[in-house]
Specification:
single chain, 4-stranded parallel beta sheet, 4 strands, elongated
C-alpha cells in the first residue's frame, strides 16, 4: 500500500524530506527536538540538496572540458606571474560590479591560461552564476553553420545568455573575415552588459 505522505512529498518535489523524514523522526526523542527543530532540519536538508543540484546543473551547462581549481594551479612557473592580480579576479568584481568588465589572459602556450579561465568559471558556478566555456573556433564554426541555415539569432542567444562567457584559444588558428564578424557580434552585444574572459597567445 502506498504511503499517502510519501506520495504528497513526491508531488511537492521534496526528495530530501521524502528520503529522511522517517530517520529524522527517530532522532526527535534522542535529542529532545521540538516539532520546530524537526521541521527546521528537514527544511535545511532540502535547501542544501537543492543548492547542490543547482551547482551541478550550472557546471554541466558550462561545458568545461575538465574541472580545474585555483588551489591546484602551479604558481612556481612562470615566476613572473602576478599572483595577487590573478587571485583578485576570484573576488568577481568584474562580474558583480556596477559596470561589467572583460578579462583577457595573454601568454604563450602552456602557461596555464586555460586552467585559470576554467577555475574562474567553475568558481563562478559555485557562487551561483551561469557560465559557458567554449573556444573561439567552436563559436565561429557553430555560428557560421547557423548563419547558413537561418538560425543565427537563436545561436547568438546561447552565447549572450550566460552571466559569464569564457572564450578559450583566441588567435591560435587563423580567422577569416566572416569568422571575425561573427565573433565581433557576440563581443559587441555583451559589451558593458555581461563579461567575457578571453585567453589568447596574441
Amino acid at each position: 500500500m502506498t504511503d499517502p505522505l510519501d506520495s504528497h512529498l513526491e508531488s511537492l518535489h521534496l526528495p530530501y524530506t521524502r528520503q529522511h523524514y522517517t530517520a529524522l523522526s527517530k532522532v526527535v526523542g534522542e535529542r529532545s527536538w521540538s516539532c520546530i527543530d524537526y521541521l527546521e532540519n528537514l527544511i535545511q536538508g532540502e535547501i542544501e540538496e537543492r543548492n547542490t543540484r543547482s551547482i551541478q546543473r550550472r557546471i554541466a551547462a558550462a561545458r568545461f572540458p575538465v574541472i580545474k581549481s585555483l588551489e591546484n594551479f602551479q604558481w612556481s612557473w612562470p615566476k613572473t606571474i602576478d599572483r595577487e592580480k590573478v587571485q583578485s579576479l576570484f573576488r568577481f568584481g568584474f562580474l558583480t560590479g556596477e559596470l561589467p568588465s572583460n578579462i583577457i589572459l595573454v601568454g604563450n602556450v602552456g602557461l596555464g591560461k586555460t586552467h585559470l579561465s576554467i577555475a574562474l568559471g567553475h568558481t563562478a558556478c559555485l557562487r551561483g552564476h551561469s557560465v559557458l566555456f567554449t573556444t573561439a573556433v567552436d563559436i565561429i564554426n557553430t555560428l557560421a553553420a547557423a548563419q547558413s541555415s537561418g538560425r543565427l539569432k537563436q545561436e547568438l542567444a546561447r552565447y549572450l545568455k550566460p552571466a559569464l562567457l569564457i572564450i578559450d584559444e583566441l588567435g591560435y588558428l587563423p580567422i577569416d573575415k566572416q569568422g571575425a564578424d561573427l565573433l565581433f557580434q557576440i563581443i559587441s552585444q555583451r559589451y558593458e552588459r555581461a563579461p567575457i574572459v578571453i585567453t589568447t597567445n596574441r
